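Try this one yourself first.
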């Protein structure tokens, strides 16, 4: 059921075995070396994922995506090359559905939901980091000021979970539940999900002389609590800030508006 729902949410209306096989048969794209450097370590500590998804399947999906983009890229569109983290974005989708279906769902996720996250400059990710700090300042100014007093930029702890839409944080079962929410309501809410993770350990962070020690690895996900806090936090943001949040994964003009 989850696989069907995700395909609907990602608007996957076209699946062609012939097309996918033809892309796979093209072999190794120029990004192949980068892809192979990442695939073997994708969710490497999650045995359920490793049992369900073979590395070869992940390699084929990522290579096929690289070839499909080279074949269809308009002159004025975003450049979709391979950047580190794209392997982790594919992992939950491959865990949820067949390899062929996963290719089309993954393609739509990248091209239409968060194209700026995978640009060579990671523009969308860096805008997300900046917006996370602005949102945290509005939602919890005391925690924001405390982290700033410890010279803690969000870039130090938030880049991986923004780039991978929290798929890098275990356990996978909670990632799946969180993605149910994010695919339904918008990838942009992942920024607030990360703030929610901070809020859930707020007391520990405020009491710790070196809070970065707690954030080197974010705590395991608790999707129910994170979603509940995220929905509460949405109501605390002014409309103009929320608008920037909504648009940052796909609208390049946001970078100028927030002085990135």
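Now uncover the answer:
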């Amino acid at each position: 059921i989850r696989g069907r729902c995700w395909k609907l949410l990602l608007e996957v209306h076209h699946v062609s075995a012939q097309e996918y096989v033809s892309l796979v048969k093209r072999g190794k794209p120029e990004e192949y070396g980068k892809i192979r450097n990442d695939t073997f370590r994708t969710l490497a500590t999650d045995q359920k994922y490793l049992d369900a998804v073979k590395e070869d399947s992940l390699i084929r999906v990522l290579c096929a995506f690289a070839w499909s983009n080279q074949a269809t890229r308009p002159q004025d569109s975003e450049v979709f090359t391979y950047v580190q983290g794209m392997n982790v974005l594919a992992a939950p989708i491959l865990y949820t559905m067949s390899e062929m279906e996963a290719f089309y769902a993954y393609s739509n996720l990248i091209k239409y939901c968060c194209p700026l996250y995978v640009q060579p400059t990671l523009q969308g990710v860096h805008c997300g980091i900046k917006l996370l700090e602005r949102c945290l300042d509005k939602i919890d100014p005391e925690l924001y000021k405390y982290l700033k007093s410890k010279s803690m930029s969000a870039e130090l702890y938030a880049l991986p979970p923004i780039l991978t839409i929290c798929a890098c944080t275990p356990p996978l079962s909670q990632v799946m539940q969180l993605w149910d929410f994010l695919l339904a309501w918008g990838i942009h809410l992942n920024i607030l999900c990360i703030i929610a993770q901070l809020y859930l350990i707020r007391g520990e962070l405020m009491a710790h002389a070196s809070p970065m020690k707690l954030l080197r690895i974010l705590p395991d996900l608790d999707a129910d609590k994170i979603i509940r806090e995220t929905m509460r936090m949405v109501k605390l943001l002014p409309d103009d800030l929320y608008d920037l949040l909504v648009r940052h994964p796909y609208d390049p003009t946001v970078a100028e508006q927030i002085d990135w």
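Discussion: The mean pLDDT is 95. The CA atoms of residues 113 and 187 lie 7 Å apart.
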